[in-house]
Amino acid sequence: MATVKLLADDELSPEARVIFDDIRRTRQSDFVNNFWRALAHDPKTLGRTWDSLKQVMAPGALEPKVKEMLYVAVSIAHGCSYCIHSHTASARAKGMTDQEYAELIAIVGMAAETNRLVTALGVAVDDAFLVDPPKSGPQDF
Amino acid sequence: MATVKLLADDELSPEARVIFDDIRRTRQSDFVNNFWRALAHDPKTLGRTWDSLKQVMAPGALEPKVKEMLYVAVSIAHGCSYCIHSHTASARAKGMTDQEYAELIAIVGMAAETNRLVTALGVAVDDAFLVDPPKSGPQDF
Amino acid sequence: MATVKLLADDELSPEARVIFDDIRRTRQSDFVNNFWRALAHDPKTLGRTWDSLKQVMAPGALEPKVKEMLYVAVSIAHGCSYCIHSHTASARAKGMTDQEYAELIAIVGMAAETNRLVTALGVAVDDAFLVDPPKSGPQDF
Amino acid sequence: MATVKLLADDELSPEARVIFDDIRRTRQSDFVNNFWRALAHDPKTLGRTWDSLKQVMAPGALEPKVKEMLYVAVSIAHGCSYCIHSHTASARAKGMTDQEYAELIAIVGMAAETNRLVTALGVAVDDAFLVDPPKSGPQDF
Amino acid sequence: MATVKLLADDELSPEARVIFDDIRRTRQSDFVNNFWRALAHDPKTLGRTWDSLKQVMAPGALEPKVKEMLYVAVSIAHGCSYCIHSHTASARAKGMTDQEYAELIAIVGMAAETNRLVTALGVAVDDAFLVDPPKSGPQDF
Amino acid sequence: MATVKLLADDELSPEARVIFDDIRRTRQSDFVNNFWRALAHDPKTLGRTWDSLKQVMAPGALEPKVKEMLYVAVSIAHGCSYCIHSHTASARAKGMTDQEYAELIAIVGMAAETNRLVTALGVAVDDAFLVDPPKSGPQDF
């Protein structure tokens, strides 16, 4: 099931090939996963997305493993099965242990539960959580 | 805007009071935020939710700060403004730096983008990402 | 905050007025809530939506109270604050007790949690849950 | 497609086995569905989730059938195919008729439609729907 | 995977058959896709949905192609794989070019990203974007 | 309500100032809306997001007005009130008429309804909608 054909290496436009080469070089692996083969029909979005992903997932203040775990958490909440599978695999490849994975899953479930409870009840944000709280007196409960 | 009144301390049932006491003792703070004051109408869900949250967010393989950041990521994807504000405040209280926050936000946005691109294109999960890949030969592109 | 002005009674087009009259007659109340005042700019969608809602929420196999509770559950999952408030009020007006409301909220939260756990883990649907299960032998775990 | 292997009975840890025994005893059936077999890698989340589910779905003010229908409604809105299939099967097992199912589906669809219309238009919540309406005069439209 | 059996032509109720006839006549094609075959168990919802769809997707101020592209965009954001496939096919049948499709996908991804960034940061709506801005002085940043 | 302070012009870092200058030059307007003032704490994400947005929303095969309408549709489905307001204003500024807006809203609502109906029923994608349909015989209903 797909809305476009996945492009094999010999079906790539020259522009897409350049980006595939960079994916392979950056990841030091010959494997290019299906997402890029679907995006390759539009080299502009392929290139922009790859450049953004490289920048966002590059080593920074957060560990690469933690970055992948955040990616997994969002993908679960958005219900993207492909993204869940690919980024769970990446998180494991970057060192996520079974125990860490278990904690990740538990937090995502718990957050989903309290997210919906809060939304159901229409809870107002406490002044204490605001960056710019109103100056006028205490909370009114 | 709320579907129930927030309960002040002197409006709590005895069952709810016991749980508020545990929240205060566990957090070593007198402050009890609005979420619990809305949930307090139903001591059973109040108690179960607090117990689960204590278990899930307790120190484990993941740092408390990282746990809060995962909570924030899910809350953003679910569009729960209250939860975003409260858990962003918690993540900061547990040591999240401005740089880490900036990276968190960037990952959530990036994941949202690729989640939707993948979903749009109907990309099939690569065998390489499966825990139990089919045995029958290489990927067919 | 709105993307259109709410229309007062004396700002309605003749087509919209006819529908407002039917809303008032059907509900036996003079009160017309903001949703319809925002929709009234487009009498076609106003009329179609009102007709559909009347048909869907009419007495049927399910109690009116249960119908409103299902509406609330969906509105929470979609994060529509207005809809949560209006249908929670309707459910109460149709007899939902505090205990029933507490159970509704708890189920919505619990469903959100297991929904995300299942999605995270990529659990395959058991043959036992399929209307047309494959004929070829037992489940393979 | 899964991010973990489903555990067969003879692959369970002693802690997970205890919970499977309780699932079987409580449901008076030998069948344990895939969700629990995926969760069983983490006995802590397995146990907590099962305990919560037992509490939330236990007979209460709402009929068991209605509870399952609310679960289905939320699962549809969250796009969890597994949960939709398993809880639709449960609702039927607990007495949901074809007519009730048809009404459930229609309400979920209708709610989705008006949820998005309201969100599109940014409709403000009517004072009449608020638990604590502002005291200062009539609505301003 | 389905929660109901798809109905073949010779399994339709007389009421459902009338609607299938109208679908075929309106589309000038014998092909009736699976959605209608699943809905056909409930002729009331089948009829109401078909009537609404005919009205909403009829030629209007927007080109039919643009209407289908909007449908695709929403279906992606809701994660409905069936709807994505069927309406992407319809958009192509109504003239959507590969370039237009590439732009559609890129916009959906970009919107998802900024939607989540804005939600994460809790950005207040600028007065300039309000239909009824407050009269009292300039924005307070 | 925000998780960061909105930055005024005289609070910008030199890197952020450069991007604000480009926003003003590109839009030929002195007005810089709150989204960019919130993002400005992180010049890297500010710059990347602005560059991507410029590329994605630039004149192309689709009219600028249609591009904004697609943005609005996605923002509604994601429940981002800020984005709905800002892009609805942009769509109007680029020529969206009241009639076109009414049709946009109606499509978004209709899509939401059928998205959820399809998801509820677990409808399988018709071979006719697949880019690479299986070769093995007709559909089996």
Can you put this structure into words, describing what you see?
The structure is a homohexamer of 141-residue chains. Chain A has 2 domains: 1-58, Up-down Bundle (AhpD-like), CATH 1.20.1290.10; 60-119, AhpD-like (Up-down Bundle), CATH 1.20.1290.10. Chain A is mainly alpha-helical and 141 residues long. Helices cover 61% and strands 0% of the residues of chain A. Chain A contains 6 helices and no strands. Chains in contact: A-B, A-C, A-D, A-E, A-F, B-C, B-D, B-E, B-F, C-D, C-E, C-F, D-E, D-F, E-F.
Which terms would index this structure?
141 residues, AhpD-like, 2 domains, elongated, mainly alpha, homohexamer
What's the CATH class label of the largest domain in chain A?
Mainly Alpha
Tell me the fraction of residues in β-strands of chain A, as a range: under 5%
Give me the CATH fold name of the largest domain in chain A.
AhpD-like
Helix- and strand-based class of chain A?
mainly alpha
Shape of chain A from CA axes?
elongated
The low-confidence runs of chain A, each spanning 5 or more residues with pLDDT under 50, are 137-141
**What is the succession of H and E elements of chain A?**
HHHHHH
For CATH, the homologous superfamily of the largest domain in chain A is named as AhpD-like
Q: Please provide the count of β strands of chain A.
A: 0
Please give the count of helices of chain A. 6
Whole-number total of structural domains of chain A = 2
> Could you estimate the helical fraction of the residues of chain A in percent?
55-70%
The largest sheet of chain A is: none
Distance between the ends of chain A: 53 Å
Biggest interface and residues each: A-B, 73 and 72 residues
Radius of gyration of chain A, in angstroms, nearest whole number: 20 Å
Oligomer: homohexamer
Q: Would you identify the CATH architecture of the largest domain in chain A?
A: Up-down Bundle
- Average of pLDDT of chain A: 94
